[in-house]
Structure formats: structure tokens, C-alpha cells
Amino acid sequence: MNETLALLSSRRSVPPVALAAPGPDASQIETLLSLASRVPDHGKLAPWRFIIFEGAARARAGDIIAEAFAKLEPDAGATRIDAERKRFMAPLVVAVVSRAAPHAKIPLWEQELSAGAVCMNMLIAASAMGFGATWLTQWYAYDRSVLAQFGLSDQEKIAGFIHVGHSASVPEDRPRPALEQIVSRFPG
Ligand SMILES: Cc1cc2nc3c(=O)[nH]c(=O)nc-3n(C[C@H](O)[C@H](O)[C@H](O)COP(=O)(O)O)c2cc1C
Fold first, then answer.
1. Fold (CATH) for 13-51+89-166
2. How far is the CA of 188 from the centre of ligand 1 (A)?
3. What is the pTM of this model?
4. Is it the case that residue 187 has pLDDT exceeding 90?
5. In Å, what is the CA distance from 183 to each residue of 5, 175, 179?
6. Which residue has the least CA distance to atom 26 on ligand 1?
7. What is the mean pLDDT of residues 12-25?
């Protein structure tokens, strides 16, 4: 099996709690984002963009998330709110923002699929670079007050927050769908 196939058959998400420093450095982040953006994109619209959360920006993002959570759940205790504050604790978090918009020829769905491809490419590239990574959304990906503070316009959506860092080990694989349950053959 060649290296690419071996990577694809062994890649697994690593949860943010298991992602430690060092994360990617500036040149590795550039490589990661360049590779992530090499995806099929009908109409060459680049209907996505990135927001990098690194260093102190992660704590500031956590404060925004915790504040929004406290407003949504006024009865939540300090421990729960503090857990929300720690959402962006991996060394690097990249928001993949879908900026899909109505277009004369390219359906919105196809623009959104392209943003999903960006997220997947980023996971694969991060693994190939020796990092652990995971693709999460969580409730705040759908909270407009949080998104506005992250700098998204009302039309933009989060395709994913990609959490990246060093991981000492890769979790055991999980069960994968059995091909016989998802494959059919169109009759000739
Ligand atoms: C769009 C999208 C959003 C996700 N959001 C979450 C999430 O909010 N919370 C969560 O626990 N897992 C979420 N997941 C699933 C994680 O990425 C999960 O760890 C992943 O499915 C593991 O896949 P793997 O074993 O192939 O790496 C999401 C997956 C996708 C594709």
C-alpha cells in the first residue's frame, strides 16, 4: 500500500483534549491552508474562507462562547460555563467559513459541498504533516451572536472548526459502515 492509501486507511480524528503544543508554526499553517484550499470548486468561486484562532485569540473566542452560553442557559453553573470557555484550547483552530451565495449557474448545495471538501482536505493534510486534528461544529457554530463576533456576515455559515495540534497517539479506529449497506449497483 502506498503512503497516501496508508494515510487514508489509518487517519482518525483526535479529540481537542488530546491535542497539545506544539501546533503548526506559521509556515506549516500556510502549507495546511494552501493544501486545504486545493479542492474541487464548481465555477471557481472559492465559496469559503478561513479564520485562524491561535494563541490569545483562542481564549478570547472562548470568552465569547462562554458569554453566549451563559445567556442561553441562565441557570448554568460556573463549572459548565468554564467548560464552554475552554472550547478552543487546541494549539490551532481554523474556522472554515462557507460563503456560498445564490449564483446564476452554480447551486448553493455545490458551493457548500466544496466547503466540506476543504474541511476534509485540511484533516488529511494535518495528518500527513504529523498533526492530530478533528472537525467539529458544536452549538456555537449555529449561534448568530457568536458568529457575528467571530466576524461572519449574516449570510456566511460555519462548515467546521478544525482543531489541530500534536497528539501523542491516534485513537483506536471506530466501526465503519459496511459497504453492503451503502452500495448498490445500477442494473444494466
Ligand atoms: C460537519 C461535521 C460536524 C461535526 N461536529 C461535531 C460536533 O459538534 N461534536 C462532535 O462530537 N463531533 C462532531 N463531528 C464528528 C467528529 O468529527 C468525529 O469525531 C468524526 O466523525 C470522527 O471521524 P473519523 O474517525 O473518521 O476521524 C462532526 C463531523 C462533521 C463532518
1. NADH Oxidase (3.40.109)
2. 37
3. 0.97
4. yes
5. 21, 17, 6
6. 12
7. 97
